Amino acid sequence: MRPISVAFLTALLVSVNAAAFTGREHRCISETALAMATKDVALECPLLPAKANPCDRAYEGGETFGDLTRVVDWYQDPMRFAPFDWTIRQRQTRFLRRMWATHNNVRHFQDGAATAYRDAHKCALDAVSLCDGLWYEAMALHYLQDFFSPGHVVTPRTGSNDVVSSSLHDRFSRRGADLTVDTGMLRELEGMTPPSHIYGDGRLDQQATDFLIAISAASIREVVEKHQRGGTTTQLTLCFRTRSAEPIKGSDVSEVMGTARGPYAALLRSDAIDPRCKCESEAIAQYQFTGDGDLRQGYYNLWGFRGAELIGVRGGARRVTDVGMLIFAEDPTGRMRRRTSCDECSEETFQGKAAGGAMLHFTNVEGARYRAQGLHLEFDGRWKKLEFSGYAGYRRYRHESRSDKRPEIGGKVGYGLDVLNAIVAIERTHTVDSSGKLRQVYAVMPGVELFISPTWLETIWKFVSRQ
């Protein structure tokens, strides 16, 4: 039992960390890109390329350009470190603080990644020296590379439950997206056969790796040219367009069924066009989710994502164990933009009071004189760190030699870390009294709630199978 308990704790802490390119992928891409961009430049910086092969699984890392790209995952704000302050690597041994950052990683997804890249790249261009600029550029590349992982563009992190985010990320990283690249717009892309379809984290093929190396090298080249030649430069930037839909009857997101369109991502020049919506005509590289059935509705279809919820509550002699499966989830508040029939996006978003969703639950109840199993449907909402829900269903009670089926309703309120919440459940339920009769009661039960994504299930399985 102990290995399984340890596995659950480990999975809880590393869950969202797994929703990212591996450290080796980030390091390999950035180191190779640095060598490409500076092959004719004499660098005299403490931030040197790796002496060993940074793409080798056996390479342990050090104080190098690629390792700095890698450690961005360990902090909510890595830009607070001054150039060449290598205490940034100390968090490698500070497990809990490092994993906390992975649960607050909005900057690695959607417009968060686009903004983080733009800000860090600008810091690199405006730095007092080339060496300082390369320090900030190493961090900027982390967000640039994340932006071309389809799971990072589909997945909203702001206002979304961790298990929903991780489930979306995992599915679309595996599924990938069609990519369009204009190889004539960057010298690093000339002569290259770019991938027509790109996959996400941990699934990069050689074509996709070469593409990411090329755009990373182009970004580094801008920093080198700015510091060597001075003056201004037209910098690379990222464009993100969130999911959009056409209103049919009113303003509520439930009234746009079938008109939703998946998000859009592009790499372009900063002087091209307004990067908020119309990106296509000037894009260097772009991809959009337009034909995916799971993204054409006013909610995310989560059937088959394998995300699950475990609940344990107890009240008096009554113990309830609950396993839930995700069915669908709405976009977080304000994350879906209005679109007119002519495909123009407006600044107006569909407003909601909270993100919501639905789960199908299987429950097992143990009392002093009975056992019961049941099935119920739960609709929940989330506002910041507060979760609230209501559910209804049936349970079959087995006591003595009898079996009775009864309707059940209830609700719960929870607060916590999205992944692990403290909850209070209130139910109109049933119990068996001392005379053996089934009677209706109201129960108030405190407990805990744990959300499990496919990433965690894989982590747990791998850990337990090694024991």
Strand order of the largest sheet: 9-10-13-14-15-16-17-18
Q: Ends: how far apart?
A: 11 Å
User: Per DSSP, what share of the residues sits in E-state strands of 2 or more residues?
Assistant: 25-35%
Number of strands: 18
Number of helices: 10
Poorly predicted runs = 1-19
Major sheet characteristics: 8 strands, antiparallel, barrel
- Helix percent reads 25-40%
What integer value in Å does the Rg equal?
Answer: 25 Å
Assign the CATH architecture of the domain at 301-466: Beta Barrel
SSE sequence, one letter per element: HHHHHHHHEEEHEEEEEEEEEEEEEEEH
- CATH class designation of the domain at 301-466: Mainly Beta
Task: State the CATH topology of the domain at 301-466.
Answer: Porin
Mean model confidence by pLDDT: 79
Principal-axes geometry comes out as elongated
Structural classification: alpha+beta
What can you tell me about this protein's structure?
It is built from ten helices and 18 strands. It has 467 residues and is of the alpha+beta class. The chain has a domain of 166 residues: Porin (Beta Barrel). A hairpin with a 2-residue loop joins strand 9 and strand 10. The chain is elongated. The N terminus is likely disordered.
Brief summary:
With 467 residues, the protein is α+β, with helices and mostly antiparallel strands.
Any key phrases for this structure?
single chain; 467 residues; Porin; 8-stranded antiparallel β-barrel; 4-stranded antiparallel beta sheet; 10 helices
Present the secondary structure layout:
Blueprint: H1 2-14, H2 23-37, H3 65-71, H4 95-102, H5 110-126, H6 130-147, H7 150-154, H8 162-175, E1 177-178, E2 180-181, E3 197-198, H9 206-229, E4 236-241, E5 244-245, E6 264-269, E7 285-288, E8 300-301, E9 308-315, E10 318-329, E11 337-339, E12 345-349, E13 355-366, E14 371-383, E15 386-399, E16 402-416, E17 420-432, E18 438-452, H10 454-466
Parallel strand pairs: 5-11
Antiparallel strand pairs: 1-3, 2-7, 4-6, 6-7, 8-10, 9-10, 9-18, 10-13, 11-12, 13-14, 14-15, 15-16, 16-17, 17-18
Helix pairs in contact: 1-10, 2-3, 2-9, 3-6, 5-6, 6-9
